[in-house]
Amino acid sequence: MNLSTNNGENLKISIEVSLGCFVWFSDSNERRRVAIKCETVEEQRKLNSFTNFQHNSIITFSNIFKQNGQIFMASTLKMNLGTCKNLLNSTYIEGFPEPVIKIIAKNVLKGLMFLHSNGIIHRGVCAQNILLDTEGEIRLAITQNVIKIKDCPRWIGQLNRVHSFAGLEDSFVWLAPEVLRQDLNGYGIESDIYSFGIFICELSNGIAPFAEMEPLRILYEKLRGTTPFLMDSQTSENGKKFLIENFLPICTNLSMSHLYTIMNKGLLHMNF
């Protein structure tokens, strides 16, 4: 089937793989590319507003097309290894080796810091939203959960805080306590660093902390201060030592001021 995109490009659509909100298809030149599903026109417009944010650790989607009533937005990249979540489910069931986690972590952090410097909160840092390919590309995907602080209603005296909570029901496992709390303080870019810590546990353990809990139990545990841990910290003195000693104490510290300080000093300057 040949479809015309918003860029006037004709795509011969042959969807081969579907992983979560992402699909892989072959275009008219037999190039394999990745696209994201959009449930509504509003989602498509929102994702389209991020196409100007270009970075080597970020993947955005711009070419819009439809198939059988479903809206898709395609990237020019192939990302043919799929998502980190797919690799955890199929190959690295007990988690990635630490050297691999370090490489992925550094790239994701670069993408996050770029978004934060532009006043953007990702709100979806998890294995499902990290795409990889065989040429070494590691990209944090811009998905429907991403928001621009300037586009959100803000209260006087809280210019860098937002109070938008809609659409996050499926992300309880990764969300920071201040996001789940939904109180007058709102949340800011530092909430992504907590999610990043949960993501590191997910890569290391093969499953995210809290993943087997009901949403109400997740809310209870996070608000009472329960912090995640790496399974290796319980079973081995040497296993994934760098992650245990460096990343998790920083990322899952529940003090927002602590997270903000760490972010500004530069989590990226750690010895990877």
TrEMBL record:
GO process annotations (BP): protein export from nucleus
InterPro entries per UniProt: Kinase-like_dom_sf (IPR011009), Prot_kinase_dom (IPR000719), STRAD_A/B-like (IPR047173)
Domain of life, source organism: Eukaryota
GO cellular component, one term: serine/threonine protein kinase complex
Stretches assigned to coiled coil: none
Signal peptide (from-to): none
GO molecular function: ATP binding; protein kinase activity; protein serine/threonine kinase activator activity
SUPFAM superfamilies assigned to the protein according to its UniProt record, in alphabetical order: Protein kinase-like (PK-like)
Domain Protein kinase intervals: 1-272
Family: Belongs to the protein kinase superfamily. STE Ser/Thr protein kinase family. STE20 subfamily.
PANTHER family linked: SERINE/THREONINE-PROTEIN KINASE FRAY2, SERINE_THREONINE-PROTEIN KINASE FRAY2
Name of this chain's protein: Protein kinase domain-containing protein
Source organism (scientific name): Meloidogyne enterolobii
